Amino acid sequence: MGETEVGSGARDRMLHRARELRAPWRRRSREVGWGRFEDWWTPSVDALCTAHVAGDDLSGPCARLGEARARAGFGIGPSLEDLDAFARAVGWEQVPLPLARSLAEGWERGGRSRGDCQDPLTGLANSEYLRTRVGELYRGVEDGVPAAFGHHLVVVALDPALDPWRRTARLIVLGHELRRFFTRGESVCLVNRARIAVIATEDPDANGSLTRLRDEVCWEHGAAVWSAPLPSSHREASALLDSLDGGGDRADV
Fold first, then answer.
1. Domain segments of the chain as ranges
2. Cα–Cα distance between 26 and 40 in angstroms, integer?
C-alpha cells in the first residue's frame, strides 16, 4: 500500500472520529436549549471536532465558532453554554479559560457588523446609546423642568485592577443579571469594560433597591454600586459620563 493510500486512510479515520464526537456534543447542546440541528451546526463545529481529534490547538477553532454564533444572532451566553457542552462531550470538567476567552473574542468580532446600539460581548446597550438616551432627557429644558430631573444613574463598577479577561467574564454575567433585576423600562448601558450605568426613574425606596442590588447581584462579583443624580444641565451630565468613563470619584452605598 502506497504512502498516499496510508495518508488517505488516516485522514478518513480522523474525520470519522470527529463525526463521532459531534454526536455527543450535539446531544449535550440540546440539553442546554439548542434546538434544530441546522441552527446549531456550522462548519466551525466540525473544525473544532477535527482539531480536538487531531490533537491540534483549539484556540483558533473556538474563535471561529464564536464568530459563527455571533453572525447567526446567538448571544454570548448560549455560545458559552454550547462550548461547555463540547467540554463535557470530550470528558473535561470545565472549559479551559483560554478557550472560553477565544470563543468570546471571536464572538465579539463576529458581532461588530450588526450595526445596532448593542455591545456585542455583553448584550448591553453601548456607551453611545447611553449618551444619546441621557441627551434625550434634557430635551425641551427651555419649556420647563427637564425629564432628567426624574431620573438618576445607578452605577455598577468592577475592580479595574482585575485581570482584563476575568473582568470581562464578570461583566458578561453582570450584564445578564442586571437585565433580570431592572425590569421597568430602565436603560442598562455599558460605560466601559469595568462599569455599567443604569438610567432609572426616581424611586421612593432608592436606598432599599440599591441594597438589594448590591446583596442579590453585585456582591458575588465583587462589584461596587452607587447612585448619582442627573445634574441640572446636559453639559454637566456629559461631564458626569466622562468622569464615569475615566474613573471618577464615587460614594459607596
1. 3-114, 127-246
2. 8
Element (H, E) at 124: none
pTM of the model: 0.57
| Range in 66-80, 129-143, 188-202 with the lowest mean pLDDT | 129-143
Dig out the grid coordinates for 19 from the structure. 463525526
Superfamily of domain 127-246: Reverse transcriptase/Diguanylate cyclase domain (3.30.70.270)
The pLDDT tens digits for 36-64 are 887 898 889 999 999 999 999 999 999 99
**3-class secondary structure, 196:** strand
Spatial neighbors of 195 by CB under 8 A, at least 6 apart, are 155, 156, 157, 158, 244, 245
240 φ, ψ (degrees, to nearest 5): -60, -45
